[in-house]
Specification:
Length: about 450
Amino acid sequence: MNDRGSGSEGRAPGREDDRTRALVVGPYLTRGGAADLATRDPQARLAEAAGLAEAIDLDIAEPILVSLSQVRPSTFLGKGKVEEIADAVKNAEATLVTMDCQLSPVQQRNLEKAWGAKVIDRTGLILEIFGRRARTKEGALQVELAHLEYQKSRLVRSWTHLERQRGGFGFLGGPGETQIETDRRLIEERMARIERDLEQVKRTRGLHRKNRREVPYPVVALVGYTNAGKSTLFNRLTKAGVLAEDMLFATLDPTLRQIRLPHGAKVLLSDTVGFISDLPTMLITAFRATLEEVMLADVVLHVRDVSHEDWEAQAEDVEAILAELGLSGEAGARILEVWNKIDALDPERLAALAVAAESAQGRERPSLVSALTGEGLEALLERIEQRLAEGRVELEIALDPADGEGFAWLHSHAEVLGRETLADGSARLVVRVAPERFDTVTRRFPQAEVFQGAAERRHAGR
């Protein structure tokens, strides 16, 4: 953990740095606690908390790990630990303390009084990151909506000014309306306006999605724990320039690019926001529209960082959110696991994972890749192609070479997998269509026949 704060530890008190000096505190219940959260390694959790703070460019002092047997209602921490951290705040000259937990408004207020510094909890920190990173109009609106919901929950007489009474001038509030009631009403009015704006944005997104559905390209969505390497994989496959840094939540707004699979078929690849443990509920709700790309994708790639010590726990967090989005049970069959960052493994660990992957049955078998070096990506693309082919029908269609309109129609409404010129001069096309498009294509081309070589090709590619 020491390297997290090493860049600033040696600075003199009068250092020239306009970043906010912050202390990161990881208060985790020990095993057997009242609300046991010890499924993760505490040091890994603390490292993640420091990473969240670094994501908004805070100047971080040495992170502090606190083991708890129980949570105190008034301050979350015990009295002795509160006093100990107060000294640490003073020594580090910190003006901000991030607590890697969910604090009640009362706990937050009491800790701020005890430490003489602003205190934000995990939810507040994640909201701050999302607020800085959102680039699209929809992303910005969703973040603001989530932030207002969070602020509304804080309006429980947490600050003395909220207890003042307002006069009854009518335009600011009725007779005797308190400041807290006014603040809550103003927040609710702003939330209602944002929700109306979001509905308009969603309608626009729906039209864009409908237009994309008219194009026969299937959608492949990348999901995974934040910093699992999704954007690096996205860039490697698409040759795009999406921000891909060793930073939590480097990508927020969804990005779509077209790629070509080994046999020539085109797909749309979507990069999405990374998931994280204890993701604020209001953000899951607010970003549901953004994650529609995942819910409607033909194939979902669950990218996992196999070099991370908590990769199993991270996978459970992602799977829980996917289940909440409706990707479980039969719908979960669309998910393909991608074990990324194999370049960071030692030979023994890599060999063990390769054996584990090979022993998995059929659809459950993960793909081992390195988005950084490109290792394993060709095999991954073949797996994606196989998955897409499972639910689609391949047709063989003979066309007159002069039928330009027919060629154009097929390229617009189906995946053209191959073309061959026959001895009589006619062209033979092999196309792939979604089941719901089968009748449309066969009505347009009555000569179409189910391609007999499709099953053999899929079997050979397994």
